[in-house]
Design a protein that fits this description.
Blueprint (H helix, E strand, L loop, with lengths): L4 H37 L2 H20 L5 H18 L1
Amino acid sequence: MANIKSAKKRIEIGNRNRLRNKARKTEFKTVIKKFEKTLAEGNIDEAREILKDVDKKLKKASVKNVIHKNEASRKISRLTKKLNNAI
């Protein structure tokens, strides 16, 4: 454990950021699961709307440095491909 006051503050900041990043990751993972469930049920129009939400959340996560921008692009691309193949 840190003894210096500034080091203790940095630990607190790191924990706060870790929880914030975890929340953002959980958020887009949940929306992705919702998209895949909707697609499996055959609701193409609803899946399109959810894909827009997925796109928005992934891009926001990449801008906030939660995930790399290439990872966000790759996930969006793969999900779009799934949607197009389901049509």
